[in-house]
Amino acid sequence: MLTLDWPPHRPNDPTMPDSSRAHNRSPSNSFRIAISNSANNNNNNQTRHYTDSPRDLHKRPRAGSVGRHAEDTLSTLMSWLNGRGARGPSRRWVLVAAAATALLLWRVLRTGGDDRGWLGKAGVVDLEDIPVVDRSALEKLRLLEIHYGADEDNLGGPGDSRKGQGMDSDSPPVVAQIPDVLRLDPLAPARPAKVPADILDDDYCPTRPGAPCAFLVPAWLGEQETKAQMHLYQLGLLALSLNRTLVLPNVAKSRLSCCYHNPFSFYYAADALDQLGVRTISQAEFVEWSEKRDPAPSAQVVSMVGAKATYLAGAIEIDSASDPTLVPNKPTRNLCLKAPKTRLDFSGHSPLAIYPPEGYHRSEAGRLGFGESVVNTLSSPEVGGKSSRASASRDAPYELPNVLAFNYELRFPIMAPSVVSLVLPSVPPPLPFAHFPYSPVWTDLASNVAASLSPFIAIHWRTETLAPPNLAPCASSLLRKLSLLKSRYPSIKNVYLATDYPIEDPSGIAHSGTFAKVVTEQHHQAFRAFLKSFEKEAKGLSLTTFAREQGRVVLPDALREALDRKSVV
């Protein structure tokens, strides 16, 4: 069992704030993260972490004496490969040879030692029956090499037994991988001209003179926009603590994500986070930066979800073998950052999954202590070195990725302005959270609707959390209240109802994505009864909704086009 301190120590990086002293000053709890260096026999998840053992990956069925001999040979070979005897530049070719040997042994096992070898019954080669070693197999071998830390940089050193064996400056270079062939799509739009990284980064990140740009991207945020605002603010504070710029995600369907088409400014004031003291850049500017930068910016996926029963003290999982663009434990989730949407290069860093301790949310000290630990984790050279795929050498320098792409699903705040002040005492503390001001286009539209309805009663009725049997009594209570208000204020003629139920079109789509998944026939019956009773009991009142009113007011062309798109429902 390998145990890492939580939080890990921050690196001695002049571009990063030193939080080790701040963490020592923190009154919050300190957590230790247990990371097993052996496979978990009780874990059926196929995601591999850097702690996995390769021994369980090479079990083969026995096939007589030949099978037993082949399996023993393979076992001995794998034991040697995992030991120190195979370190050095020849390791890749040894691994390739091992793979070829394994394929041959697999054939022998399959044929049961038949002396016909690779020939079929007719004495001809069956091409479909021959296993193929392609680039993906070589990549897995490379990652396995990095996984167990080969010392490829120690060539010619005192401990190198190959020194003087013909490996001199006149020797041809070692071919360690098959180069990728880039095939351009002739129908794709022309990419912008490439700009050297140092020049481009100074232009897009003036607050980091002489240092590469560093961004934090909220690629996926859990919950709908009201609470998503809080989560985005949390990531903004985390970005500040890591000396990174927050990328403002796009919006649609009452959600915030990089997968949508409408810019952040479509919902909110473009400077909503900047007003709170968080440095930001739009998603469009960020994508433009990634397209122009030469070389392409490096990136790493970071997933933060709720506590896991198997990690009572919290944990860091490093997925060292899978596709580096995937979200750990959620491989089907698309963060919409892969090519051709951006030019981010995820290949150099393994995905991270950070789990909070059990019960961390029960106290402010526990929540903020975990947040401070996350800052230290994402700055830790130990975690960074374990997650690096750039080199198999243990001595190779680790470089922080230019971009951290977050899958963020926590429900409780883990950051506060006080945590940022501990990490960055020289920076003015950010302001406490406040809901973002909406885009002027929406406030202007609201003013127009209100003017056309005035005087009116406005009601927000959220039904997705209401049990269906309670809908009818709730509707009856609402009708009594409306009748009372009408009697007191006879000039009122309109009732504006905002609800997640599609009251203007019961057969249509619910106004809430979560409610659409749970709506039942009981909901439909209750609202049909409500509408019928409204006509009878709410005398002199007219019921309307936003869907009905938007056709009666003059909308800006850009807003009308956006509302007509299905992405903005």
Domain module tally: 3
Supply Rg: 30 Å
Say what oligomer this is.
Answer: single chain
Tell me the distance between the termini: 50 Å
Strand order of the largest sheet: 8-5-4-13-10-12-11
Helical run tally = 16
Helix content: 25-40%
Number of strands: 16
Low-pLDDT segments, ≥5 res: 1-5, 11-67, 115-123, 150-167
Mean pLDDT: 76
Shape: elongated
Q: Please state roughly what percent of the residues sit in beta strands, choosing from under 5%, 5-15%, 15-25%, 25-35%, 35-45% or over 45%.
A: 5-15%
The largest β sheet comes out as: 7 strands, mixed
| Class from helix and strand fractions | alpha/beta
Overview of this protein structure:
By secondary structure, this protein is of the alpha/beta class. The protein folds into three domains: 267 residues, no CATH class; 101 residues, no CATH class; 125 residues, no CATH class. It is built from 16 helices and 16 strands. α12 links the parallel β14 and β15.
